[in-house]
Amino acid sequence: MLPAGRRALWALARPTLRQAATPASATLRSPAALRRLLSALAILEQRDGVLNTGSLSAITAAKKLGGSIHGFVAGSGIKPVAEEAAKVEGVDKIISVENGVYDKGLPENYAPLLVENIKKGGYTHVIAGHTAFGKNLMPRVAALLDSQQISDITAIEDEKTFVRPIYAGNAIATVESSDAIKIITIRGTAFAAAEVAGGKAPIEDGVDPKAESDTEWISEDLAKSDRPDLATAPKVVSGGRGLKSKEEFDRIMNPLADSLGAAVGASRAAVDSGYADNSLQVGQTGKVVAPQLYLAVGISGAIQHLAGMKDSKVIAAINKDPDAPIFQVADVGLVGDLFDKVPELTEKLSKA
């Protein structure tokens, strides 16, 4: 029991202490104040001076954090790319570095470039697509910043909590990061590409450390096609091992794709058997797609394949085995010999 005099002093002091503490506590916990401290850098991809619009998904993901958003692009002749990205609504600034050595996105020199600009901007989040570019670059960036990368996320719960699939999509993990800089790659099918319209972000020159690299780009051999890009096509037809040969794959799948205006994909079994190029592989170790229509032909439906296409809006399957696992996820299924059913379907679609 305090003496009367000390009780009186404590009673007078207590409201003052409480009033002093409350605003500071409220400020620290205020979501609005926290959002002002957040800043995200969205890594944008370009090729030959053309913006990869699929990489604008990184901006969509950044918007869910609620802080400021900057875009980053590097390479030669990128002024049109930067100007296009600056039109995205919600972007506060585009940082560009004009230098041809970054055209191919080699991580050995692109990672030091990115790290210098991350440090200069004081970003709390760095976001890139879970593409070949992002998967090649971001682990090196994370290592240079002594941060743990969070890969292939499908949702953002708050500024430090993220959702990602594991075990070929059979389980979902919720990950919380305490790193000062969060290095993130996102699943493009989970975040729609931001629309290029309405924005007027300023464009600023970034820092170019001109880091030396022992790696040199020699050449590339690209498979060219007039069909839609597999990763972003609204319709995809995929063939599996049931097609039995490359000749049959081309004979059956290409006319079907043309009749639908669809991209052509393949299962890993078909790729490993030499029926299709590995750039067409859909699945856990290939491309992840989520088109409006996914038509699986002669594909049994192994979990590794399902991991790459199960988010499609409508899944249709043609297989002679009524117990094939693909029918468990298909919205529409046709049991029959694909060598009879697919040409018949193609003919009807062409007439329609």
TrEMBL record:
GO-annotated molecular function: electron transfer activity; flavin adenine dinucleotide binding
Organism superkingdom: Eukaryota
InterPro entries: DHS-like_NAD/FAD-binding_dom, ETF_a/b_N, ETF_a/FixB, ETF_alpha_N, ETF_asu_C, ETF_asu_C_CS, Rossmann-like_a/b/a_fold
Cofactor: FAD
GO terms, biological process: fatty acid beta-oxidation using acyl-CoA dehydrogenase
Any one GO cellular component localisation term in the record: mitochondrial matrix
Alphabetized Pfam families for the sequence: ETF, ETF_alpha
UniProt remark on cofactor binding: Binds 1 FAD per dimer.
Record: residues binding FAD: 241, 267-268, 281-285, 298-305, 319
Keywords on record: Electron transport, FAD, Flavoprotein, Mitochondrion, Transport
Compartments reported by the entry: Mitochondrion matrix
Electron transfer flavoprotein alpha/beta-subunit N-terminal domain segment(s): 40-226
Function: The electron transfer flavoprotein serves as a specific electron acceptor for several dehydrogenases, including five acyl-CoA dehydrogenases, glutaryl-CoA and sarcosine dehydrogenase. It transfers the electrons to the main mitochondrial respiratory chain via ETF-ubiquinone oxidoreductase (ETF dehydrogenase).
Quaternary structure note: Heterodimer of an alpha and a beta subunit.
Family membership: Belongs to the ETF alpha-subunit/FixB family.
Listed name of the protein: Probable electron transfer flavoprotein subunit alpha
The species this protein was found in: Podospora didyma
Lineage: Eukaryota, Fungi, Dikarya, Ascomycota, Pezizomycotina
